[in-house]
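Entry for the shared binder. Reason: the reviewer on the internal report wants the predicted structure included alongside the sequence.
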Amino acid sequence: MNDGHKNKYEVIIIGSGIAGLTSALLFANKGKKVAVFEQSPVIAPLFSGFNRRGVHFETGFHYSGVLGPDEVGGQMFKMLGLDVPVEMCNPDGYDNGYLVKSKRVFKIPTGYERLEKKLIEFFPHEAEGIKKYLRMVREEIDAIPFLNFHKKQYSREELFKFIGSGKTFDEVLNECFTDAELKTLLSFTSVLYGVPPKEASFMFHCCCGGIMYESAWKLKDGGDGLIDIFVKALKEKGVDIFTGKKAVNIEETGGIKKVFFEDGSHYLCDMCAAAVHPKEFIKIAPQDVYRQKNIDRIKAMEETRGFFILFGVMEGDFFGQEINNAGFLDTDGLAGGFKDFMYVNVHSGRILPGYAADKKSVENSKVICVVLSVDSDDNIWNAPENEYKVKKAEMEQKIKTRLDAQWPGISEKIKFMETATPRTFKHYVNYYGSYGIKRKHNEAGVMPITKTPGLFLIGQSTVAPGLIGAMISAFLLDKLIERQQTKR
């Protein structure tokens, strides 16, 4: 479409998270005239993190699997033409599981052989089950086309098949193990996608958590560094990026989409891809964007649990303990869907110039975020301001008390600088849940293709949460559009 109208684009992307930026770059690399619209004042607000008093805090990324140069994440960066510096996490222990009942610390290694050896060392009576479980994970991952499209040739039809074992994650755990503490430890990564083992398919678990059994990676320049790389590439391709523009309605007439924004402006396009929460999408899309039964299904979908997070800086060490990431794993917590799960992430950010005049003080400082899983309940987080402040203070104290129970006196050594609640998340992504909708076993996902020609939905709700899931959703849309065009 090129009729000289200044508000017309071939493609409009709504939302500037990883899925939106990836999709924008895929379209731009094909020579399309593209614009990205973001409701926040900044690009990718959750993934980019934020600065407070000379400290940068990471909010949307700590580590990910399959980002190596020969893995699907690294290959997607390459296909996009991006040079993204990554660094492998410590293969001997990139994360720590604090087993509350036995008071043991399990340093989680990467690499199937290392992981198998370490698990058997801790749980020798479950040796055969451990070997069986890890074999099942590998087989499941190898059978998922979108995790292997960089190294295997698939037909367009094969690429969109999601077969899997048909089992829940919980069923696989019970099939392989009897030890409740081992099952709790292996369920640790379910927190990364917000679905308890009883509700998650084994395939979904492998897509989100199982991919880190082989490798775990950090972004050398953090989440904001990756966003800077995306933005630079998009600008070089002539993509227009708008911030502070919240989409409120999409109309379609004669193949042309008209996207209206909260400030009263509107833009036209041939194609529109919305990288937003599915419930937000059906609010702004044409009424017949999906069949009514699918719209009703989306409205009824459960949200994942929310996060309550304290951000701070600590000078010195944890009383001589070498600590990085730490999840507190209680067998009772597993049974309850990890409702009060607490996670401590150290080095989750960086000290900026000007934080402290004393160089030694900066070198000894650790950036910390402490995460508590909480209900994503509108009655709690949308309460009147005075009730909200009381609840916020209660939760802050609850986190500090639990920290001190593990490391006595540590909460006084941490200089807490900021708090994020589910209300904070809603401000940026319109919903309280940390990972959007729950992707439950045997529950159909949300389709990226709609009944409105040229209007699509992308993002973690269509594939899987996290950096990899968001990028894959954009690549799958690219392949779906190719398939549609081939059939014409």
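Summary line for the report: The two ends are 19 Å apart (CA to CA).
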